[in-house]
Amino acid sequence: MNLKTDDYRVKVGKTVRLKNWKTDEKGGLDKKEGKAWAKVLADELAGWQERLYAENKQALLIVLQARDAGGKDGTVKHVIGAFNPNGVRIANFKVPSEEELAHDFLWRIHAQTPKTGMIAVFNRSHYEDVLVTRVHAMIEEDTVRRRLDHIRNFESLLTDCGTRVLKFYLHVSQDEQQERLQDRLDNPDKLWKFNTGDLEERALWDEYTEAYEDALTTSTAAAPWYVIPADHKWFRNLLISQVILDTLKDMNPQFPATDLNPDEIKIK
Q: Which end of the chain has fewer surrounding CB within 10 Å, N or C?
């Protein structure tokens, strides 16, 4: 089984209209077979991560963006959880500190990019600075356009230096978001996750749609965006796992050569 991941990739130079992308797609699979296949991919992901870590010449940056309750944390748990923690770093970018605001908007981002051999996951990212700031009119439209250009150049710099970049927009419907937010209210074990501010952001659905559509135009050959149908969590996890696995295979990291001859070594 191999999903046609290119169907979910944002083509370079194309205008994006999120209404044309499905949120509830399941790739022709049912939940049982999808979850079973995800376990197979998890084992493969672990093997390829070990190669990346051992080779220590390349790096992988994974960007996760979504609306509230879109599934970023679930993706980290169920997809990134396949990796050895020693080779992974998770960064979550919240409201900038006073120190961070005193620098350019990418300053705090660059410090969290992965070194060779590592995988970094941005649970929210530099794109917040053209999403939240734009929707809440904290920056002007011309600033948005300049920042999008800066982001393209920033990601180009990373790829030129050996870091592959994968960007995932977890595409959830309004109805599914409502259901997930309600579940947080109804479930005592999830109530801690509920934030009344999420309702204020939900009221700005159309404004966020427009902001995301512009952000997705930063998809390039080297740093592509994927629009991931996210209403079904199991399919979201499966599809993202497949994209990451395909990318690691394309990077083709190799275990380093050694002069050791195991036959000449005796452990006493």
A: C
